[in-house]
Amino acid sequence: MKIRRIFDKHTWPLWLSFWLPLILMTGYFIYRHMAPFGSSSLLTVDMGQQYVDMFSYFRHTILHDPGAFFYSFSKTIGGDMLGVWAYYLMSPFNLILLAFPGKSITTGIFIITILKYGFAGLAFGWLLTKTRTQSGWLVPMFSTAYALMGWMIANQLNLIWLDTTAILPMVILGLERLFKTGKIRWFAGWLTVMLIDNYYMGYMVILFSCLYWLYAATKYWTNFKTLLQQIGKFAWGGLVSVALSAWLLFPTFYALLQSKAQYNETKISWKFEYAPWKMLAKYVIGSFNFDQMPSGQPNVYIAWIAIIGFIVYFLRHKPSWSVKLSALVVTGVILLSFCFEPLDLLWHADQFPVWYPYRFSFVFCFWVVWLAAQAITKDLTIKLWQALVALGIFAAMFITVALNIKHVTYVSMGNIGITAGLAAISLVLLVAPKRRYLQLYQIVALVLVTTDMTTNAVASLDNISYVSQSEFGDYTQILDKTVSGIQSSNSGFYRIGKTFTRTKDDPLQANYNGGDHFSSTFESIIPNFFGSIGQPDGDGVVTYSNGTLVTDSLLDMQYFMDKNIPSGVSNSENFNSYIPVTSTKPDLRYYTKSSQLSNQKVNVYQNPYALGLGFGASDKILNLKVSKTTGDPIARQELIYQTLANRSTSALISAENFDQVVFQNVKKVVTLTGSVVNKQDLAKTGSIYFKFTPKTNDSYYITLGQNLSTSNASFYINGKALKQYPTYRHTIAVNVATHSKGKTVTFGIQMKKTSLWLQNFTLYKLSNQQFKQSAKKLQKSPWTITKHTSRRLTGTINIKKNHQVLMTTIPYSKGWHAKVDGKTVKTHKVINTFVAVPLSKGKHTVTLTYRPPYFVAGTILSGLTALSTLGWFGYRRYRRRSTD
């Protein structure tokens, strides 16, 4: 009986709404040989560089370490994770990933992607059915137009956003019910789901809900008293949603204040971001390619039947002029938001998007299809004059794009022709009388929409390249194998560095404590600190690729993984492509190679100078003032390390001169650092060779300013290309020599442009003897960790002198709470970055526990709101029964 109710004449349009977009996209992915159906994968751009690693972390947290939900030392050197979950990982679809470990996770991503297409169609079909807007074959027709909209195709690589397309129709259905029945539970319930699933997209849904409320208030207008009631219920529903989500939103908001909020725009330009006519090009099939990802116009392609219906909505006798006017206002606000900077910033929470502009364009696609579904009746026929108006609009659009095609390079004349043909066929179909065979015409319309949207999907996605399954799988397999070997041999707390990188979230993928990270909710203190000590950093990203002996020791890099190139094997062998080297590190000669932990692809080294996560240090560090990112990173390393060891009078690092500088087709300069060098013959290559012969076996480093990047020059050490992570916004430190006494070292720069600024270009020598003495002194009082989880660490330490602190390399946060010998003590923030705890002389047991700030308060609010809501519904139910 229940099966019949699920599969009957009333529900088949919903099933078709779900399966049609799912099958269409599955067919395309099979055609593109996506895993598990071939050698490619859905990994591209952020999906391959960020999300896939987050998904691996998701699996580990759910299956093995629930505490990592709150905090993880795999997030660079440690960080809060609630913000990461709130933005990246709260989708219930992610539970599917639990069945796909290791390199097979790409299959899980495939399944989730096609399911999200299906549920987007199902949700829109549900909205159409429950509001009685459409029925029969027209339900899957409009649902498919929605599920395969241009925003969905362009952003399918942003898998974390796609749930929004399934939740938005439910929120709008809740608003419709609020106006029709006065009940807010559907609206408040689905808005809560949206905020928990992804607060970022939820913010955009809230803004659109406000616009939709204005439209619905006009549509369902009765009187002012009713309007005030509707205002109150709408506001109350929103507040209930926020309160129910507070357990996640409160700590996430705090995390944002430490990360993205620090990059908010402080100056707004009241200007158009581009010529608005360029939006017209987005209604041509295939109007999306890789160049449109970092910057471009909104992706709003919709089936032409829906576009015609949208135009007809404003040409019909019904609804009333006031409703049409409100719909026109909503349309105008969204369109203006696509090109007017202040409104664009509003939709993106006062931050310009880094790639993927106009992320809110899904609401416009929804709006167009939703109004079209209200305009086109089941007879699929429009009046001739309406068709002529639409034809005039279409002609103006296509002519404008064709005449300006050189300004929209992602559009071709061929695609304009195909699009015009689809528009013409759609128009003819709607104009043609359908007194007989109406159902057949409806099926034809569905086929036409399917053809239209599939053509756009294929034309757009064929412009995008993807990571091969082997490239991802081989790297993942060898990284997991090497990390597992290290962790099997040592169950203590330590960090692992490496000289190669697939993504900045390798530590999350392989579940180890590392030094790299990339996310939109990354606390700014870590990029600031990393940039100050010579590591590549950016807004929301760090890469520990330029560690020195000093920073490796300080940050407890007890192990290092280095790509193994067997003797007789060229570096250009196949495995070079999936183990990309991003660090030149001769200093590894000072570390101990472990034959037990090494394998055919990766050598593992142990660092005898690592200080551990915590150690006894001079309390002078409490008062040390260190500039954030300006100045010399090598000098800053020396200042920090020697202050900790209370050896500030002992020279650790010294600036050195080059023995010889050879200029080839470059005008000579006397002073190197800070000079601008120029080519002599602009048509020829300009090169400079800096030579020096070390008099000791100490470590040597060269600092390179931001201007000395791979976009401006190529760099070489003794004729071999420098292996270096390519992007950095502050001065980095490059290890150029170790154990090279009496050997000439040549650092070469080949200019790529006519001039080059030798920004912060200096040669330094590290006194290895002085470094070892400082390291040995700091290792005398280690914090010996006896128990450790993701958010709780307990250990013992023996402070042998007065005026010392427990210095840790745990990033400072108000969420860290310390107990010394069972008593709560205050933590201190040192070097603008780390947690330190003052200690008296003697043996102590120190416990550090992490509680996300405002998590308890948010949980209490959510709990009270949930209980109150349940109590209210229980009371209402009791009252109804008592009056029956």
TrEMBL record:
Pfam families reported in the protein's UniProt record: YfhO
Keywords: Membrane, Transmembrane, Transmembrane helix
Transmembrane segments: 12-31, 82-100, 107-128, 134-153, 160-179, 199-222, 234-257, 298-315, 327-349, 355-373, 385-405, 411-431, 443-461, 854-875
Entry-linked InterPro entries: Uncharacterised_YfhO (IPR018580)
Extent of the signal sequence: none
Organism domain of life: Bacteria
Protein name: Uncharacterized protein
